[in-house]
Write a structure and sequence with these properties.
Rossmann fold; binds S-adenosylmethionine; alpha/beta; 41% helix; 8-stranded mixed sheet
Length: 270
């Protein structure tokens, strides 16, 4: 059994918190259970600003997809760790720019597959694949990926708020494996949870590892994320708190959170 197969479950375990369902609750969604909500309450005790952080992250995802589609002509999106359906999902944003844009969602959580099949796959240009994002070769050879993502055309590979779910030695190999499969002119979008406060980094890392039964990596620091995008041309405005990545309206001071932030940006492949 390889790494990818090990982390794929087909049954929804409502007693163990899942990152997808916790994030859904933080965004105000209803696809979550008491165990997820209890874990979120524990999280809020360590990092009280986490609901604002989740909303800021989701707004970044919308903006980045729109910018890549509108200004860089990207028509293919591979969304790793896509999460539960919410408002303005990637295919809705991309297909508003171009009806023919293609989107494949990838997530290993069975609840994302269950809800995604009915609420994300609205047309034949959109698909959802249940896979472990570390299993790049299976993802790129999946029939829905080969049907929708042309390897000779630029693609945006999204890793938005997901790399903190992986262990230290898993992130870079995954990113390199994806880079090798992308056409020149493709983009990588990466952001993850970082904190300047050791207490938050250690507290959340330990809480999430225990709550999720080990399905968790680490809250990191900005330099870690910088390393993931090393060697790529980073597009404006560079790497930052994603709240400040090309905001489409004035950023209200209260939107800025300081317990921790989603930090990252966008790199272009030559
Ligand atoms: C915080 S959510 C981010 C959702 C979305 N990318 C966003 O930014 O709005 C993290 C997602 O990554 C998924 N995930 C975590 N580890 C994964 C793995 N190894 N393979 C695939 N998906 C994974 C979780 O199930 C969850 O849906």
């Amino acid at each position: 059994m390889d790494q990818g197969e090990q982390s794929i479950s087909h049954t929804i375990d409502v007693d163990t918190p899942s990152v997808a369902r916790m994030y859904d609750w933080l965004l105000g969604g209803i696809d979550n259970y008491p165990a997820d909500r209890d874990a979120c309450q524990d999280l809020l005790r360590i990092a009280p600003s986490t609901k604002a952080l989740a909303l800021n992250n989701r707004a970044f995802l919308r903006r980045v997809v729109k910018v890549l589609a509108k200004e860089h002509g990207i028509r293919q999106f591979l969304d790793h760790g896509s999460g539960l359906p919410t408002r303005d999902n990637v295919h809705e944003v991309a297909q508003r720019v171009d009806h023919d844009a293609r989107v494949v969602y990838v997530d290993n959580d069975p609840i994302v597959l269950a809800h995604g099949r009915t609420r994300l796959v609205e047309n034949e240009r959109t698909a959802i694949v249940q896979a472990d994002m570390r299993d790049t070769s299976s993802i790129f050879s999946h029939p829905d990926v080969t049907r929708l993502i042309r390897r000779d055309k630029p693609t945006a590979a999204l890793f938005v708020s997901v790399t903190h779910c992986l262990k230290d030695d898993e992130v870079q190999p995954m990113i390199e494996a994806v880079k090798q499969r992308l056409a020149p002119g493709s983009f990588l979008v990466v952001c993850q949870l970082v904190s300047e406060h050791e207490k938050v980094r250690d507290g959340v890392t330990s809480l999430m590892a225990t709550a999720t039964g080990g399905n968790w990596g680490r809250v990191r620091e900005e330099d870690d994320v910088r390393g993931y995008l090393h060697g790529l041309e980073i597009i404006e405005p560079g790497l930052c708190d994603v709240t400040d990545w090309r905001p489409d309206r004035e950023v209200h001071p209260r939107q800025h959170v300081d317990d921790w932030v989603e930090w990252g940006g966008v790199g272009r492949l030559d």
